[in-house]
Write a structure and sequence with these properties.
CATH architecture of the largest domain: 4-Layer Sandwich
Number of strands: 20
CATH class of the largest domain: Alpha Beta
Radius of gyration: 24 Å
Bound molecules: manganese (II) ion
Number of domains: 3
Length: 416
């Protein structure tokens, strides 16, 4: 019997730029991607859909995000195509006393949330999934045994032996929100490929999520066993060059074949504009205009791009003259970006007789000003650099436009 399924991951519903006037358009991007996957699943009449973690961008979502998710998943539920999911690091809820949004979706029958139980001596137990309570770690579909782990933290590699011990069936598939070093572009939450390898003996297909870039890992004998589809939309700056999509997988007599289906994410540009040697702000602005125009991606469908622009070089005018608002106006004229982040790393060069002096860059001035403010309070003296770094990290999160309360708190708890 042939089984066909879709393997997707990292949908990140609920992400937007709260500080931006265009937040609702960006907010819809992620629902559009889920709707594309749902429509494909129904058109192809697949047997099930996998979501390998990070369905939601944050653990605490807005009520409207929950409502939109239900609306988007409804056709799948109506078509009786199971949507099997695990939690990622983004939709993980730490508080044990509150029910997570993922659990709620599972109880309502929109997803089947797989999550293992732990035994007293630290082992894993995959209880059969109970549709009534929406809980369990193991689900059988056709001849396949599906197991789900979600995100288990930064030490996932140490758990592989215990995970394998907990499985005694054959024809196994594992949903696991974890990255593999050498492949995964993210820093935290990865396993070494050698640590992961024992999974290949127990599971024919390991459905990964987490790193937003697609990759496939193979055993030393060359058998592909772990697959990461990446995120279907560009979630963060830095993802502009990754292929975006999800897998269609066919299982025929225990043999897996996969096909990557590309999605059409919003255009994104990350670029450094070199203004080295610019004599005044007007000249710099002209160079800025022509370099941006040359670098702009063409979406082909008129969708407004997301831009991260870094200004670099030593210039002969004060970097403050190229203020954010001035650059924004120019960018609006050029390409009406949906969202812009500008990093001003220009430094001022002045001539003092024969020698040139490089004055401080905007970033250095910021640090100095903050250090001055912080050291004015005697309780903080001696910790200026640490607190400056913390302040800037919080500032960066807030400027990104989607500060998650828990992420901000975790920055603070690293210091206290
Ligand atoms: Mn993710």
């Amino acid at each position: 019997m042939t089984i066909r399924f879709i393997h997707s991951a990292d949908i990140h519903l609920g992400k937007t730029y709260r500080s931006s006037a265009n937040e609702s358009e960006r907010y819809e991007d992620f629902f559009t991607m889920l709707a594309v996957i749902v429509a494909d699943a129904i058109r192809e009449r697949v047997d099930f859909v996998l979501i390998a973690g990070d369905l939601f961008h944050t653990g605490q979502i807005l009520p409207r995000t929950f409502a939109r998710t239900i609306e988007t998943l409804q056709p799948l539920k109506d078509a009786a195509i199971p949507c099997v999911a695990v939690e990622g690091n983004h939709d993980w809820i730490h508080r044990r006393d509150s029910i997570s949004w993922m659990e709620a979706l599972s109880q309502m029958g929109y997803i089947r949330l797989l999550r293992p139980s732990r035994t007293e001596n630290g082992g894993y137990r995959f209880d059969p999934f109970d549709p009534e309570s929406g809980a369990g770690g193991h689900l059988r579909i056709g001849e396949l045994n599906l197991y789900g782990l979600g995100y288990i933290g930064a030490q996932a590699g140490n758990h592989v032996a215990r995970i394998c011990e907990a499985v005694s069936t054959r024809n196994n598939l594992l949903l696991f929100h974890v990255g593999l070093w050498n492949y995964s572009p993210v820093e935290i939450g990865n396993m070494q490929p050698l640590e992961a390898l024992p999974l290949a003996e127990v599971f024919d297909y390991v459905a990964l999520g987490h790193g937003h870039k697609p990759y496939i890992a193979a055993t030393p004998e060359g058998r592909a066993y772990a697959f990461n589809p990446g995120a279907p939309e560009r979630v963060n700056f830095g993802e502009e060059k990754y292929d975006k999509g999800y897998y269609h997988v066919t299982v025929d007599q225990g043999r897996y074949t996969h096909q990557f289906r590309s999605t059409s994410p919003r255009p994104m540009l990350v670029t450094t504009i070199n203004l080295e040697g610019a004599g005044n702000a007007d000249l710099a602005l002209e160079r800025f205009r022509s370099q941006i125009a040359a670098a702009l991606p063409d979406s082909g469908d008129g969708r407004r791009p997301l831009l991260e622009v870094r200004l670099a070089g030593r210039v002969a005018f004060h970097p403050f003259e190229l203020g954010r608002e001035r650059l924004r106006l120019l960018l609006d004229e050029l390409c009406r970006p949906l969202h812009v982040e500008i990093k001003n790393h220009l430094s001022l060069v002045t001539s003092c007789g024969e020698t040139e002096t490089v004055q401080k860059s905007l970033a250095e001035i910021e640090r100095d000003v903050l250090a001055g403010l912080i050291s004015a309070n005697s309780r903080y003296q001696g910790r200026e650099q640490e607190l400056v770094t913390l302040s800037l990290a919080i500032r960066d999160q807030v400027l990104k436009g989607d500060p998650d309360g828990e992420e901000l708190l975790s920055l603070l708890s690293g210091v206290v």
